[in-house]
Design brief:
Length: 417
């Protein structure tokens, strides 16, 4: 999917023809990114609630597109993040989009409602549920279910049943997709071997200034007076004791589901949060679809890495073969050069002996006879080495010209058919 180019007028027609979310999906970007592009190029967009009013038959006003003197505004280029995604990831995204269209739209919850305890808990969540229900809240009213066999949950005591119900719903939605959720002690894992993703459920914590009670104020005053008395007696302390903390860390009951960062390119969604008009209970299928999509991204990244590794190994192998062939060529040249030298020497000895016999005196000296014998012996040895059998024996020992060349460059796959 190449970058898409539009004029301001074409973009204006798009964003006023259907909801921004749908236009953004078609362009391969988020609706937030689309709004920023429109603002940058001075393209007015429908206000919040425009499409709901129009569907209800209420009067709506379309903002007119004004001309701009800046030529940079006229040309819009959109690089959709889907361009970076592998085809298999785009396929999963399209499948999830079709699933969302086929499902009835849930009614948004604007506030939390009491959650009835889940009785028949999914096996992957059962140990975590038992631990959360039995745990004694700490001084901050927090309970935990971490360690072996648990999902790594840390929530306020008032949010325990909601956390259990949310995890149970996700586990069952995964099971409906033939996937299973496994607790890791600190998070949860979903696997399609050899690939896996981990995700966690966390509760938002707000840092607020502590409002001291009357008892805390009285204790603080007592500590202050004690410090003053100590200073009069020459007793100094650099670590001033406090009767109450400066801040409180409040559990808000707002949950977040987040996939651990696996560095998958393409901007795939990794987290879902409770919002003003939407709770995670209504997003179970979207969360599971997002996990499945991210899992396909992890698979695509692994396969890409494996392809890169195979290509790197192939290049290394080809380079090693090339070096080995060059080294063998050097040995071949040295081998042939040696036999050329032996052949030249044999020819010279043969010629020398012929001239020597022509001029040999009838009674040669002993040194001359012994030298002649040595030359003849030397010539015989050289001629033995220079026979086909002698050269073949030397070749067999060095394996310079094998029948099957294991150093030959492999034939490319496209040329082997």
């Amino acid at each position: 999917m190449p970058p898409q180019e539009l004029t301001r007028h074409a973009m204006y027609d798009l964003v006023w023809s259907r909801p921004m979310r749908k236009v953004a999906e078609e362009l391969g970007i988020s609706d937030v990114a689309l709004k920023k592009i429109c603002d940058k190029h001075r393209v007015p967009t429908p206000p919040r609630g425009y499409w709901a009013k129009k569907e209800a038959g209420k009067p709506v006003r379309e903002v007119r597109l004004h001309e701009t003197a800046d030529p940079q505004d006229e040309h819009i280029v959109i690089h959709g993040s889907r361009n970076l995604l592998a085809p298999e990831i785009r396929q999963v995204l399209d499948q999830e989009r079709e699933r969302r269209k086929a499902r009835p739209k849930p009614q948004p919850r604007t506030q939390a409602i009491p959650v009835a305890p889940v009785e028949d808990i999914h096996p992957s969540v059962a140990a975590t549920a038992r631990a959360l229900r039995k745990a004694n809240p700490d001084k901050d009213d927090v309970v935990r279910a971490t360690g072996q066999g648990h999902c790594g949950i840390e929530v306020g005591a008032s949010s325990v049943e909601r956390a259990i119900a949310l995890l149970d719903g996700i586990a069952r939605a995964l099971e409906a997709r033939s996937l299973s959720m496994a607790p890791t002690g600190r998070s949860m894992r979903v696997s399609v071997p050899p690939d896996a993703v981990t995700f966690s459920l966390t509760e938002q914590v707000e840092k607020r200034n502590h409002t001291p009670t009357m008892e805390e104020l009285a204790k603080e005053d007592h500590l202050r007076k004690k410090q003053e008395r100590d200073s009069l007696r020459g007793i100094w302390s650099f670590n001033r004791e406090r009767a109450y903390p400066e801040f409180d860390f409040i559990r808000t009951g707002q949950f977040t589901i987040q996939i651990a960062d696996e560095y998958v390119r393409g901007g795939l969604r990794r987290n879902w949060k409770d919002g003003k008009h939407q709770k995670l209970e209504n997003l179970t299928n979207e969360i599971v679809g997002g996990i499945l999509t991210y899992l396909s991204g992890v698979k695509a990244r692994r396969e890409e890495n494996e392809r890169w590794k195979r290509e790197w190994q192939r290049r290394q192998h080809l380079e090693a073969l090339a070096r080995a062939r060059e080294e063998r060529e050097t040995r071949r040249r040295e081998f042939v050069k040696r036999f050329v030298a032996l052949s030249t020497e044999a020819d010279e000895l043969r010629s020398f002996l012929a001239r020597l016999h022509e001029r040999m005196p009838s009674s040669p000296s002993g040194d001359l006879v012994r030298m002649t014998d040595w030359v003849e012996t030397r010539l015989q040895r050289l001629e033995g080495e220079l026979t086909a059998e002698g050269i073949s024996a030397a070749l067999a020992e060095r394996k310079l010209f094998p029948e099957v060349d294991d150093l030959a460059a492999p034939v490319p796959e496209e040329d082997s058919n």
